[in-house]
Amino acid sequence: MMGVLNHLSTLLLLSLLPPALSHVVKFSDVPECKEFFLEETTPNLPGILVDGTVKDQNRYKQICQKFKYTKKNVVYEIYMFATLYDTTNRIPVFSAYTFTGVGLSEKRPDKWMIEPQLDGGVDQVMSLEEDRVTYTHQAVNQDYDIDGNNKKVNKGHMFPKAFAHQPVNQNSTFTLTNAVPQVKTFNEGSWGTMECKVRKILLKQCLDNTGKPKAYVVTGAVPSKSNTLNNRVNIPDLMWTAYCCYNNKMKKWIAQAHWSENEEEPNKKVLNPHTLADLYNMLKQHYPGGDIQVFPEQCPRGSSQKEREKSREREVGSGDVSRKRLMECDEDCKCVSL
């Protein structure tokens, strides 16, 4: 009898816990989720995620993004990608995913999904918002719709639809735990062009031993100090992305990174590629106090921007080596110098 009473007391205590303390599946809990990280190694971001351990587990939640769909009357629940989510800023820190090619595309879903786990739900599958449920620890569709047709931000994908292989994978990217408020002209301008160009690179250069595309990608956002959407959702200052893959033709690992400020783009611009070393040096300014690492050591960091500039100065003599090359790109990612 005492055992039953103790069990009931435990259940009552768990039911009284605040939603922020509800359990969210960790990356290491699910074998399928670990596969989204090269060598099952998660990024290192000082103060947030170090050696696979989240520093503030009440604030940052590891989500194995599971998607439910029906095919030929059979219901499937599949892990599609992984996200580290900031429940205070209500945006992802990053999403990690694998690129395995592109296929047929379907119409975008009408509504973006949410993650029930973040607000006390027991279901570990992304789903549509429920009526009369208050979502305290994540963004909701109303946050983005508040400005109506005059809104200046989009739901900016971390894991972009264009990088997903099949329609079901593409549909799974439409969850608000995979999105940040991204300035519309930036999303539809240099960031969109960069994603298009990177996708072409991955299709051509990231081929495994069977000749099929395979790359590991991580895309993140650096939050602003106080800039918010609907007084709830942080509008990040900066977005970044990086990939690493084995190039079977070159017989070596290759890697590249891009980033830019999340701001209005009155004129077209091009996001130049950077090395992982450049990315890590940039991220250290936002995540101080330790080593930054997005991918394991086999992914070449390359020389830093300063080292490359010094090398170029030695080759061509003194001059302005920091001047950016102006280019213009069309929707097919074809770029010409201006």
Automatic annotation (TrEMBL):
Signal peptide: 1-22
Superkingdom, natural source: Eukaryota
Classification via InterPro entries: DNA/RNA_non-sp_Endonuclease_sf, Endo_G_ENPP1-like_dom, ENDOD1, ENPP1-3/EXOG-like_nuc-like, His-Me_finger_sf
Repeat found in the keyword field: no
Region of interest (Disordered), residue spans: 299-321
Keywords: Signal
Record domain ENPP1-3/EXOG-like endonuclease/phosphodiesterase: where: 78-286
Pfam families: Endonuclease_NS
Positions with biased composition (Basic and acidic residues): 304-321
Domain DNA/RNA non-specific endonuclease/pyrophosphatase/phosphodiesterase residues, every copy: 77-301
Stored PANTHER family: ENDONUCLEASE DOMAIN-CONTAINING 1 PROTEIN ENDOD1, ENDONUCLEASE DOMAIN-CONTAINING 1 PROTEIN-RELATED
Protein name: Endonuclease domain-containing 1 protein-like
Organism field: Salmo salar (Atlantic salmon)
Gene name, Swiss-Prot/TrEMBL: LOC123738287
